Amino acid sequence: MTTAQTRSFPKAGALHAWLRARWRGLVLPAAAILAWWALARLDWVSTPLLVSPGKVLDTAASQISSGRLWRALSASLAREFTGFAIGTTLGLVLGALLGLLPLFNRIVGPSFNTFKQISLFAWIPLISVWFGLGDVAKVTFLSLAALVPVVVNTCDGIRSTPTTLLEVARVFGYTRWQTLLHVVLPAAAPSIFTGVYLALIYSWLATIGAEYLLVAGHGIGNTLIEGSEHFQMDLVIFGMFVIGLVGWSMNALARALERRLARHRYGAA
Amino acid sequence: MSGNTLSAPFPSTHHRATRPPLALLRSAGNRLLPWLLPLSLLALWQLGASRGWISPQVLPSPHFVWLTLQDLYSSGDLWLNVQASMQRVLVGFAAGSLLGLALGAAMGLWRPLEAYILPTFNALVQIPVLAWLPFVLLLVGIGEPLKYILIAKAALVPVTLNTLQGFRQTPASLLEVARVYGYTRRQQVLEVVLPHALPTLFTGLRLGFTKAWLSLVVVELVASSEGLGYLIVYGRQLFQLDLVMAAVIVVGAIGYAIDKLLDVAEARAGGGQAATRLGTASTGVHA
Fold first, then answer.
1. ipTM field
2. Which domain holds residue A192?
């Protein structure tokens, strides 16, 4: 009977299967929300900080319908993708140079390793002096955040090309360019992808950080600060939810892309 | 070193010197090369400052930064702020990692618990420390508990996930052998699962400390009245960039020292295998 049901209602069947596998994961959030709602409803503790789930939903609705969420989110995302693009491009170039040129690596490598030890956020005060508090400063900071993982993983990926493959390429008389294109790049691709994926996540974290520490303009981080300054717990919770959701979506997107690329690679091989 | 050169896609065109004097010269050159970039940058910086190319309001001279660093040290301010920061990071890390070890072990040993907790955990992990900050700030105020909670949260995540993974990666064959020998559940955990999980566990603790240190700086930048992060903010507010740079250098130096220390500790604890794997993977650039 179950199979017949699944056949006639494929979507409902999928949901059913998903619920069967995952229902236990929903218990804790459901219980937490119920407890939260009850606590807010029963008036045991009277503090303006304990807002009801309904109030948070109201805030969410008003933020969405007034377009304020969209303005903040689009400003944040525009900065994040600009910084991500700049940082990743520079990181790919620097990482490739470090990986391909031993002499360059010996000169620049140790300095870079020391540089990346310094907590990224410690640069913000200096960046704010050099570039102000506006978008230039923020994008500079985001590029820096995206740059580091890309450099490390690109260099790593290139350097860990199997020696046997390189020897085969040499035996076949590949030119440098051919070796690079057909041997080194495919071997380094997974590592490079990991770097880009990390850069996406790091630059999102840095976006929030930049909005916090270089307070000027709009952004989802500013929404949070506003909520915090006006003791609006509902706004804070809504902001946290949006930030978490964006982070999660980026994660999911990168993972899906990675799976797709991997399948493509193995399919071709 | 030679192994690294060989594994590079395009080995450098110079070949191994056959004559000892030349080899000696080359090894000396190799040792000096890493200093070329930082030293020339430093020289350029000092030159630019002393010639007046760069305004001291934009970039104070290295000499000035060094003087400020000495001043911080001799006045005792440095020690005071380092102490405040260290206390925060240690308390937060201890709380977060203990909780993480317990949570990870519990989920690792008891699968139903993982099914109940892990999805919620994963969802909460998506929210970065900085987004938790206003929430926790409203709940507990701007005092020390705020810093402890946020640093603990930062350490908790990698410790929990690595502990869980460590407990899960016991080879099935070993567990079977243990079962054949009639090990009790307790013996299985203590003598088979735990030793196997140890290297991964240490990786988690190490990552946890790195995250804790990073969050400390962030939290102190946003909300504190002492500590290394505060020193940076304070210097920025007064437009004393020498102070900012000195504090950044101290933050970097301590972070670097802790990282090296944990490297050694991890190599001791996890055995040579794990250490070499991480040693090459984490830097990718030979020292």
1. 0.77
2. 57-268
